[in-house]
Design goal:
Elements (H helix, E strand, L loop, with lengths): L5 H13 L13 H13 L4 H9 L2 H5 L3 H8 L1 H9 L5 E2 L2 E2 L2 H14 L2 H25 L11 H19 L3 H21 L2
Antiparallel strand pairs: 1-2
Length: 195
């Protein structure tokens, strides 16, 4: 991918605007920093423009209500399909859906998507698990009050993501980095619980 394109710039702007009022859980860090990290990880591993744009936009439908049709019209069907596969359906009939149901559905979506979508999810999970491990080491187990589920369920979910990513990407170095991050999170959980 070239160093700059109008299309990538438009995705940066959309991500920044969509997430402008959102912060990372328990911090004053703008949420869009996460989207930038996901895209940067994908760029570092040599993924092309569609994948890195999907990395920037992976949460705009799920968290900010941006229409998938807008993603498709602005960035094409490949990006839109990746974002769709990476988006949870959080509400149904005006009610919040259970965490377990949402996560199992998302895992199935990623399993049935292609390797490019798995790479975006790998970068997303890599950044989230690294941040969670760092937060645990800095703040201790009180971080769990910010999340829908505790350490066991969170680790279960990240391990399942790793399994699916490995199915799609095999021995890709991104898989190795994600495996290291999930293992480090498991260690941070054990350290913070005194085990």
């Amino acid at each position: 991918m070239q160093g700059y394109s109008d299309r990538y710039d438009a995705a940066l702007v959309l991500a920044a605007r969509a997430h402008r009022d959102q912060l990372r859980k328990g911090t004053d860090i703008p949420y869009v920093v996460h989207a930038f990290h996901v895209s940067a990880i994908l760029l570092r591993y040599g993924y092309g423009e569609d994948v890195t744009i999907a990395g920037l936009l992976h949460d705009v439908v799920e968290d900010q209500g941006i229409a998938l049709s807008r993603i498709e019209s602005d960035f094409g069907p490949t990006v839109a399909e990746m974002v769709r596969a990476l988006s949870e359906k959080k509400m149904e009939d005006g009610e919040a859906r259970p965490w377990e149901a949402r996560k199992r559905e998302l895992l199935a979506q990623i399993r049935h998507a292609g390797p490019q979508t798995a790479a975006v999810k790998a970068a997303d999970t890599l950044h989230n698990s690294r941040r969670m491990a760092a937060d645990l080491r800095r703040e201790g187990p009180r971080i769990w009050r910010l999340f829908s589920r505790g350490p066991e369920q969170s680790l279960w979910y990240y391990e399942r993501v790793l399994d699916i990513v490995r199915e799609h990407l095999g021995t890709h170095p991104l898989v190795d980095e994600l495996a290291d991050a999930v293992q480090d999170l498991e260690l941070a959980i054990a350290e913070s619980s005194g085990a």
